[in-house]
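Key idea: predict the complex, not the pieces.
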Amino acid sequence: MSNELRLGIAGLGTVGAGVVKIVEKNSDILAKKCGRGIEIAAVSARSRSKKRGIEISGYAWEDDPVALARRKDIDVFIELIGGENGSAKASVEAALDTGKHVVTANKAMLAVHGQYLAELAEQRRLALRFEAAVAGGIPVVKVLSESMAANRVKRVLGVMNGTCNYILTRMESSGLSYEEVFAEANGLGYLEADPSLDVGGIDSGHKLALLASIAFGTRVDFESMDIEGIDRVSITDIEQARDMGFRIKLLGVAKLTGKGLEQRTQPCLVPADSPLGRLENATNMIVIEGDASGQIFLQGAGAGEGPTSSSVLSDVVELARGQRATTFGQPAASLVDAKPVCSDLSAPFYLRMTLKDEPGVLALIASVLGDAGISIDRMRQYKHEGEAAPVIMVTHRTSPAEIAKAISRIKTSGAVLEDPVSIRIEEI
Amino acid sequence: MSNELRLGIAGLGTVGAGVVKIVEKNSDILAKKCGRGIEIAAVSARSRSKKRGIEISGYAWEDDPVALARRKDIDVFIELIGGENGSAKASVEAALDTGKHVVTANKAMLAVHGQYLAELAEQRRLALRFEAAVAGGIPVVKVLSESMAANRVKRVLGVMNGTCNYILTRMESSGLSYEEVFAEANGLGYLEADPSLDVGGIDSGHKLALLASIAFGTRVDFESMDIEGIDRVSITDIEQARDMGFRIKLLGVAKLTGKGLEQRTQPCLVPADSPLGRLENATNMIVIEGDASGQIFLQGAGAGEGPTSSSVLSDVVELARGQRATTFGQPAASLVDAKPVCSDLSAPFYLRMTLKDEPGVLALIASVLGDAGISIDRMRQYKHEGEAAPVIMVTHRTSPAEIAKAISRIKTSGAVLEDPVSIRIEEI
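Result:
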């Protein structure tokens, strides 16, 4: 065919190599589905000679991704370099500047520069697409920006980081501590060079910020997000939560209320028998709640060569078919600023306290909670461990502020041997 | 705005009324997401005066949907009449004939006339879209035709009929027979006027035929599908399957192999703790297996006003944005005929037999199975009921033909008091 869509791929790590493999292996399918061929014109990576399981000698080579982005013989620039700034951003700018559509898997760059880059693309009538940046092989960007477009989205939430879900489920199945599972995962090569992006909740936060923009028509606002990672989740809480019928998941949750936009990434309890609660290992799940659609659950591999490459290529297919979607589901210039608000939406909470084994202590705790207007749904007191009496409570819905106030009083009450732990129970 | 997209809606039942409500209620969102307004120009239904919870006096009225389809003041014709032929088909033809895009929720019409109608639309450079026809609010048509387009799809399967899943889960939770739950559901108004479309597996078959076409690039071939409904599923099998760790679901399964296209709708066992096994009530779930993406699970409401209307409007949004997707993921004229094949793919099977309580009977059964090359993975013999000894077996993988042969020998062996029951275990 003479009208092949020509790709320039910058970055030949796991995903880049996967894209090359699919374009080669499924070229017949791509041609049928697109009505034209998809061809790799040129590639760029840090090392030309690294073993990747693909043969790249047939493609033009550029040492510099910016030079690749500026080549005249490509129609679409695929940015798989990563990182907020540096050559990723520079090459995307160069591609847009010289009239190429851009497909990227770079959540960090878009979480910080998404508004600017989307406006740049749309001013030039080019597409900047990022299905692979969120939840690997799960087509959540398309579903949210296209399938849900007639809905007033009420909430978007989910497990968006496979590494964290792997660590949490492995802790539960093995009974090992966070530190032990972290070391084990590191030894198996499961962690990124900078694991704090994953376990610190930042990667989830980047993804959630992008989804929130599409869901609510607001500008990406990663800066205002409340982010907490999984590094403080203890095996004790995982086990006690399980005993009460819950599992701990690192959730990203975005919700637009009358007060503003709530965006948070934090460990939460979810019912063990709910779809989110049943999610094992590195699988991701996104739940979208629309006023018309109700809850839609999307589940799949959150990372990995095949799934992420499949998502990159879904964006390429869109471009090959001549579709020119906006980056965030509506023109970037029409996105509005939302007022960021901390979560003051009431929720049930899980409370774990280590009470002193003395008469009157439970009465004291109960009265502190009662004074804060917090009522208890369920409570279990476990066998004493020396002088300590472990107590787990599940409260009725209450505000995070009241919980914080009560916990601070309990800390200074002299009734507990350790600081109490509170974890939000996300209702789903 | 002067460039509003003008809709003509034929059929104001649950879904039609739902579409009107969303267009009115979410007009601000639709305008933002589409970059132009969506406006209802004219409607048609069997009764103009029926109470529907919507006010239609502001829209032009047509008694005849064909006349509605031919109106010059509409851009998109929305067909929500239903039925394979009759005014549904006539009005869709009229709309295409007079240059309107068509959005339909009519799986029966497309399962039979999809190829013809898609070619008609594409010859005229018009779109014929049907997200709402399959699995209600679940965006499976879009995901399969767009997000999965770079994948060689290996299998599409799922629970695509909410009524059947409701009946099966209700049987399990209540212990009632199929007939009792059917009567109960009928009394509650859950069944269609012709319930055999649902419980006979035909509705699932229609949907599966459409998905198979997109997944494999083949012409819709509803005629060749193997269809079995749920009317022969007994409460005994539901309970015994559960006891062995399975649940019975009415699955639609499509798979393209070297031999041809296998399409079947039938009750199958799935592991109780799998995503399909956990599906309750009227919820639907589709699983798509791509060579790159791996398994993608999509779950949501399979029917109902809001979810189905949301899907209708997702197609409308696509058209408002100027996207002109093909009906089945590639030009209809490029779809190929697949050779239909019966399922000869091996699978584990569930076998339930009511053995005579006599010495040597189990040995006889075991030797029949052994002679057929069928090996047993697990077996349970239950407490005798009078002269009958109920036995449940789960076999290792074997071919459906071998199972059929063995069962026919067991029937005539004199070892059983009732015909044995075999149900395929779908591996997932």
